[in-house]
Amino acid sequence: MSSVATAGRIGAGSANLLMYGHLVVPRLARWSKDRTRGQVVVRRRDGKGIGFLDEGPGDRNAQGVLVNRGWIHAPAGQRGVPRFKSIDDRYQRRAMRKLLCQICPDPADRDERGVLWLIDRAHGSDRPSWPEGHITGHPPVCLRCAVISDLQCPALASRGYVAVRVRNPVPHGVSGALYEALPGGPALTVDGLTGLRVVHNPVVAQWDDREALPWILMGEATMTLNGCTVVDLREEYERARSAPTLAA
Question: How far apart are CA 176 and CA 69, in angstroms?
Answer without folding.
Answer: 12
